[in-house]
Amino acid sequence: MKTVKEVSKLTGISVRTLHYYDEIGLLRPTKCTEAGYRLYDDKALERLKQILFFKEFDMPLKDIHKILLNPDFDRNQILGMQKAMLIKKRDRLDRLIGSIDRMMKGETDMDFAVFGREELEDMYQAMTDHMTGEQKKAVCEKYGSLEAYHDSFIEKAASEQAQKNFQKVVEWYGDKDSAMEAAAHTPNQEIWNAYQNRMENIMKRLAEKKGADVSSFEVKSLMGEYDFVAKQLFQMPDVSRMMLELAEAYQKDERLIAALDAQHGAGASVYIGKAMEEFYGKK
Known about the structure:
- By secondary structure, this protein is mainly α.
- The protein folds into 3 domains: 2-69, Multidrug-efflux Transporter Regulator, Chain: A, Domain 2 (Orthogonal Bundle), CATH 1.10.1660.10; 111-185, no CATH class; 189-280.
- Helices cover 72% and strands 2% of the residues.
- The longest helix has 30 residues, at 75-104.
């Protein structure tokens, strides 16, 4: 057993931080003495090691807490996603440095399209790289060949309407580079389906709370879980802009309301939209 001061000295984490971890339930001491001193065994130290590991990725404490508590979360899957995000950040910095170098040489880029031909080609390649054999077969049956599908994708993606949609995605991600990186590093179909299923499960549980105050702890806890999964799925550090637009659609788009209510019961769509607004803050 080690005291809180010994753990602090061993790990470099302040005593105040360890006390805070105890207060929020992230890292409980193994036992407390009659005098109120916290003691930690090897198991607690191993948990602290995991916490510090996830913090290296700038992951919020509430998300770390969910990972450690929920057996449904696959540690390696989460680490894989974090690794992909770090690679994207590195690539983005490389591109920014390249842009600065070109600007210092007097070169300028005048690209009025959201995504140009080269970027659309990168999107297509990333998308087909993630396709399973069955998906490629289905595409070939529909379009005749992958080459025909490629031509169709590039033509549609270069259209004015598609570029407007891309602009919205750029707004959600905060900048063009982040949106492009996310598009080029989408999770494979299996991981995508796993996250989608988890989000559907959370939506179902939210709908079951219909009638409860959307500002209640239980509803906000579900939204917190939804927020975490959405960030992982879309590889986006802040999904609030996208979710607030979705919340508005859940309350105003008649087709979306009908579809969601048919799945989760009358009034579910509006209720979930209000829960989202409460969690992310109204515009």
